[in-house]
Amino acid sequence: MAELGDKTNPAQTRPRNSFFGAPWTRALFALIFVFLIGMIFNAGGAFFQWGTHRDMLRQISVIGILACGMTLVIITAGIDLSVGSVLGLNAVLFAVLSLRLDWPAYLAVGACLAVGVACGALSGAVIARFKMQPFIATLAMMVFARGLAKSISGGEKVSRAVLQPDGSYAYVDLPRLFQAIDHKVFGGNVAVVTLIFLGCIFLCWVLLARLRWGRYLYATGANEEAARLSGVPTGRIKLLAYSLSGAFAAIAGICQAIQEQQGDPEAGMGYELSAIAVVVIGGTSLMGGRGSIAFTLLGTLTIGYLEKILSINAVSEASRLILTGIIIVAAVLLQRKAA
Amino acid sequence: MKTVSGIFLIVTVLLAGIASIGQTQKWVIGMSQCNLGEPWRVQMNADIKKAAAEHPELTVIFKDAQNDTLKQRAHLEEFADAKVNLLIVSPKEAAPLTAPVAEAYRKGIPVIILDRSVLGSEYTAFIGADNKKIGRAAGQWAAARFPKGGKIVELKGLMTSTPGQDRHSGFLDGIKGTGLDVVFEADMKWLEPDARTEMESALAVQKKIDLVYAHNDPGAHGAYLAAKAAGRDKEMLFVGIDGLPQEGQIYVQQSILAASFEYPTGGKEAIETALRILKGERVPKEITLRSRVFTPENVKKGGEWLDQIPIR
């Protein structure tokens, strides 16, 4: 993974002559910093058990999947505030389709992906066609998708308990896909959602490092006017970035619904900010044109470990918020110093 | 011109006549809900709607303030201006909503406060359950279940909210002087995914856990999912609060939870009290709701009233 960071970064201007100057080592510093904190505050050895790491990887996967789409958007110098709401919408939609309407898994997943892409494409089209600020366009989508989630769920969680005509509740069985995804493989050592997250990382890597469209994403973000003049279809590139972000939000929504065994219309509230934090702490620039999916992987691990360490030490909510703020700034400063 | 206004007049009279025939309703009740984002509050509105449906003379208008104090204040003012016959308010918070409630009350509109209180006494009646009592009952239930003591994980709602504080201190009261110990506690912010995350940490740190006490049923269910994934769900019992029919009661029926303590919404009682007020009867200023406990043994029969169970 290490050298991915370099290859996927054509706008990189820093000479890559020293080990410590390489961008991926800088991203790694934040992770190592947080990891060391974990070694010190190991909660009576809990940090040294594989189970702790496995659980952390499961917990952070949904944010990581959102961050994959967010990385693509941020590379084009945009932002997608709607991912949390689109996640919520798809969690509800997936629960309705699979728990209430008994759709087969592939149809339910397909429908959710289509809805996710549609949400993203709608934002992307407004941004590309009408030159609307991404902040505004995706803010509108954030509100819109949340409303849609609440309306198709009727404001309630779509759970396994189904109201019967006589006023009692029946409990439907979990579809097979739920069991398959909320499950651990390789001798119970890795959660399936973690593999889905890694799959998303891989897809983004292929796009960014191996395909022409990936280079166009960087070019659009670095200097849109120059890219357009040199023949990059910047409008379509933006449409692609937001559509993919919507698709990843849909995948995250399905994973969320499966792990909760229900579709909560409030799911994913505030997740967009975590996803942005993950991308930025990895080292991808909010100004666009620079960054890589390897950074996002490192950023995801950094935030994931941070949350896990605070959790196993049973730190109170108030102190957690304070410490998270301090540690994020410290980690990013350390990155710069190391550079 | 004359004909036009003549026709207009006739149509108006006819419409008014039709409207008055259709009008059997005598009273309009305004219901100001602070937030419909939580299932428990959705249930409260549903309970009110259901109770009101049995009385055709009542019309209830619902407004949802979406967890925004100022929006709720605006709703209260709108209801007062519309001169509803009675107001039911489930306020988001006490201090900022006291004045708007008092203003409506002074205009002569009877006000029923549901669940959370306001300051002072300028309202007609308060209906609510006692979180501290429910927490204490949960603690005493745990003490009865583990006479030899044991290790408890407590998953707290939000310690900055009154229900969170009361469910916490009540529970500690209930287990005081027994061999029960809270060995791990964390805020799960009332959210199931967060409860699962915190429980995974508890499982990593604690080799032996006897009981998980969560401040709401989704929290207890999240903890169960974590323990099940770790293959340790048989080692401990899970207890939650709220006892909603589609949540806690179902989990108890499935034997996922060993008990769920009802936190009643008071929706039905609010409509009953409203009718008494509208008919001119006197009602007590404060009505404390009774709650039930649901266990796998009694859930089919509709639970047991907490005040009828001899504990300790």
What do we call the CATH homologous superfamily of the largest domain in chain B?
Answer: Response regulator
Number of helices of chain B: 10
Percentage of β-strand residues of chain B? 15-25%
Report how far the terminal alpha carbons of chain A are from each other: 19 Å
- Which of globular, elongated, flat, extended, rod-shaped describes the shape of chain B? elongated
Please give the CATH class of chain A: Mainly Alpha
Q: Give, in spatial order, the strands making up the sheet with the most strands of chain B.
A: 7-6-8-9-10-12-13
- Assign the CATH topology of chain A: ABC transporter involved in vitamin B12 uptake, BtuC
The count of β-strands of chain B is 13
Compute the gyration radius of chain A: what is it?
20 Å
Largest sheet of chain B: 7 strands, mixed
Q: What integer is the average pLDDT of chain A?
A: 88
Walkthrough of the structure:
The complex is a heterodimer of chains A (339) and B (312). Chain A is mainly α and 339 residues long. Chain A has a single domain (4-338), classed as ABC transporter involved in vitamin B12 uptake, BtuC, CATH 1.10.3470. Helices cover 69% and strands 3% of the residues of chain A. Chain A has a two-stranded antiparallel ribbon with strand order 1-2. In chain A, strands 3-4 form a two-stranded antiparallel ribbon. The two termini of chain A are 19 Å apart. Chain B has 312 residues and is α/β, with parallel strands linked by helices. Chain B folds into 2 domains: 25-129 and 265-281, Response regulator (Rossmann fold, 3-Layer(aba) Sandwich), CATH 3.40.50; 131-263 and 294-308, Rossmann fold (3-Layer(aba) Sandwich), CATH 3.40.50.2300. Chain B has 10 helices and 13 strands. Chain B has a 7-stranded mixed sheet, with helices on both faces. Chain B has a 6-stranded parallel sheet with strand order 2-1-3-4-5-11, sandwiched between helices. In chain B, strand 1, helix 2 and strand 2 (58-64) form a beta-alpha-beta unit. The model of chain B has no long low-confidence stretch (mean pLDDT 89). Chains A and B meet through helix 3, helix 11 and helix 13 of A and strand 7, helix 7, helix 8 and helix 9 of B.
